[in-house]
Amino acid sequence: MDSEQETQAPVAAEGSKPSDDGESSTDNAQDYDGLTVAELKTKLKESGLPVSGKKSELIERLVASNQKVEDQESSSKQEDKIKFEDIENLSRSELRGVRKKYHILAEELRVKRDELNLKSQTHAMDRNAP
To answer: Are 90 and 56 part of one and the same domain?
Structure first.
Protein backbone atom coordinates (compact mmCIF):
# COMPACT_ATOMS: atom_id res chain seq x y z
CA MET A 1 0.00 0.00 0.00
CA ASP A 2 2.89 2.35 0.73
CA SER A 3 4.26 1.75 -2.74
CA GLU A 4 0.92 2.83 -4.27
CA GLN A 5 0.93 6.04 -2.28
CA GLU A 6 4.52 6.75 -3.25
CA THR A 7 3.75 6.37 -6.95
CA GLN A 8 0.59 8.45 -6.72
CA ALA A 9 2.03 11.31 -4.65
CA PRO A 10 4.28 12.76 -7.41
CA VAL A 11 1.43 12.62 -9.91
CA ALA A 12 -0.82 14.58 -7.57
CA ALA A 13 1.92 17.12 -6.94
CA GLU A 14 2.54 17.61 -10.64
CA GLY A 15 -1.15 17.91 -11.45
CA SER A 16 -1.86 20.55 -8.83
CA LYS A 17 -1.31 24.05 -10.07
CA PRO A 18 -1.53 27.29 -8.16
CA SER A 19 -4.50 29.38 -9.19
CA ASP A 20 -2.94 32.01 -11.37
CA ASP A 21 -4.79 34.13 -13.89
CA GLY A 22 -1.92 33.68 -16.37
CA GLU A 23 -2.47 29.94 -16.45
CA SER A 24 -6.23 30.05 -16.95
CA SER A 25 -5.92 30.12 -20.74
CA THR A 26 -3.67 27.05 -20.73
CA ASP A 27 -6.13 25.29 -18.43
CA ASN A 28 -8.93 26.13 -20.88
CA ALA A 29 -6.87 24.83 -23.78
CA GLN A 30 -6.26 21.58 -21.93
CA ASP A 31 -9.97 21.25 -21.23
CA TYR A 32 -10.74 21.71 -24.91
CA ASP A 33 -8.09 19.21 -26.04
CA GLY A 34 -10.26 16.35 -24.81
CA LEU A 35 -13.22 17.44 -26.93
CA THR A 36 -13.93 16.30 -30.46
CA VAL A 37 -14.01 18.74 -33.36
CA ALA A 38 -17.80 18.42 -33.49
CA GLU A 39 -18.08 19.35 -29.80
CA LEU A 40 -15.72 22.29 -30.30
CA LYS A 41 -17.81 23.50 -33.25
CA THR A 42 -20.96 23.25 -31.14
CA LYS A 43 -19.36 25.43 -28.47
CA LEU A 44 -18.24 27.91 -31.11
CA LYS A 45 -21.75 28.07 -32.61
CA GLU A 46 -23.21 28.70 -29.14
CA SER A 47 -20.80 31.61 -28.76
CA GLY A 48 -21.52 32.95 -32.22
CA LEU A 49 -17.97 32.35 -33.41
CA PRO A 50 -16.75 30.97 -36.76
CA VAL A 51 -16.54 27.17 -36.89
CA SER A 52 -14.01 26.73 -39.70
CA GLY A 53 -10.42 25.66 -39.29
CA LYS A 54 -8.26 22.98 -37.73
CA LYS A 55 -8.85 21.68 -34.22
CA SER A 56 -6.00 23.78 -32.82
CA GLU A 57 -7.52 26.90 -34.39
CA LEU A 58 -10.94 26.09 -32.91
CA ILE A 59 -9.37 25.69 -29.47
CA GLU A 60 -7.46 28.96 -29.82
CA ARG A 61 -10.67 30.73 -30.83
CA LEU A 62 -12.56 29.35 -27.80
CA VAL A 63 -9.74 30.21 -25.39
CA ALA A 64 -9.49 33.75 -26.79
CA SER A 65 -13.25 34.18 -26.49
CA ASN A 66 -13.23 32.94 -22.88
CA GLN A 67 -10.36 35.25 -22.02
CA LYS A 68 -12.20 38.21 -23.56
CA VAL A 69 -15.32 37.44 -21.51
CA GLU A 70 -13.25 37.09 -18.32
CA ASP A 71 -11.53 40.41 -19.01
CA GLN A 72 -14.86 42.16 -19.56
CA GLU A 73 -16.31 40.69 -16.37
CA SER A 74 -13.31 41.70 -14.28
CA SER A 75 -13.29 45.24 -15.70
CA SER A 76 -17.02 45.64 -15.04
CA LYS A 77 -16.52 44.39 -11.47
CA GLN A 78 -13.75 46.96 -11.02
CA GLU A 79 -16.05 49.73 -12.26
CA ASP A 80 -18.87 48.67 -9.92
CA LYS A 81 -16.74 48.78 -6.79
CA ILE A 82 -16.77 51.87 -4.64
CA LYS A 83 -13.93 52.50 -2.24
CA PHE A 84 -14.79 53.34 1.32
CA GLU A 85 -12.83 56.60 1.05
CA ASP A 86 -14.97 57.65 -1.92
CA ILE A 87 -18.21 57.26 0.01
CA GLU A 88 -17.40 60.28 2.14
CA ASN A 89 -17.30 62.45 -0.98
CA LEU A 90 -20.71 61.36 -2.30
CA SER A 91 -23.86 63.37 -1.79
CA ARG A 92 -27.01 61.84 -0.31
CA SER A 93 -28.64 61.46 -3.72
CA GLU A 94 -25.52 59.78 -5.09
CA LEU A 95 -25.48 57.42 -2.10
CA ARG A 96 -29.14 56.58 -2.73
CA GLY A 97 -28.28 55.79 -6.35
CA VAL A 98 -25.43 53.52 -5.28
CA ARG A 99 -27.64 51.79 -2.73
CA LYS A 100 -30.38 51.31 -5.34
CA LYS A 101 -27.87 49.79 -7.77
CA TYR A 102 -26.71 47.32 -5.12
CA HIS A 103 -30.29 46.42 -4.22
CA ILE A 104 -31.00 45.66 -7.90
CA LEU A 105 -27.87 43.51 -8.15
CA ALA A 106 -28.80 41.69 -4.95
CA GLU A 107 -32.29 40.97 -6.29
CA GLU A 108 -30.83 39.60 -9.53
CA LEU A 109 -28.58 37.30 -7.50
CA ARG A 110 -31.53 36.15 -5.38
CA VAL A 111 -33.50 35.29 -8.52
CA LYS A 112 -30.56 33.33 -9.95
CA ARG A 113 -30.12 31.54 -6.62
CA ASP A 114 -33.80 30.58 -6.53
CA GLU A 115 -33.65 29.31 -10.12
CA LEU A 116 -30.61 27.17 -9.32
CA ASN A 117 -32.24 25.84 -6.15
CA LEU A 118 -35.33 24.85 -8.12
CA LYS A 119 -33.22 23.21 -10.79
CA SER A 120 -31.27 21.32 -8.12
CA GLN A 121 -34.46 20.15 -6.39
CA THR A 122 -35.95 19.02 -9.71
CA HIS A 123 -32.78 17.10 -10.51
CA ALA A 124 -32.80 15.44 -7.07
CA MET A 125 -36.45 14.43 -7.47
CA ASP A 126 -35.77 12.97 -10.93
CA ARG A 127 -32.72 11.13 -9.65
CA ASN A 128 -34.58 9.64 -6.68
CA ALA A 129 -37.72 8.73 -8.66
CA PRO A 130 -38.25 4.94 -9.05
So the answer is: no
Residue 35's CB is within 10 A of a number of other CB atoms, namely 16
48 sits in the region (left: phi over 0; alpha: psi -120 to 50; else beta) called: left
Separation of alpha carbons 116 and 1, rounded Å: 42
What predicted TM-score, i.e. pTM, was given to this entire model? Answer: 0.41
Residue from 97, 76, 79, 95 nearest 87 by CA: 95
* Same-domain pairing of 44 and 91: no
Domain containing residue 121? 82-130
- Residue 87 domain flag: yes
* 53, burial (CB in 10 Å: exposed 0-12, middle 13-18, buried 19+): middle
Q: Which residues does 70 contact at the CB level (< 8 Å), separation at least 6? A: 24
Q: What is the pLDDT of residues 74-115, one digit of tens each?
A: 766 666 677 777 788 888 888 898 889 889 999 999 999 999
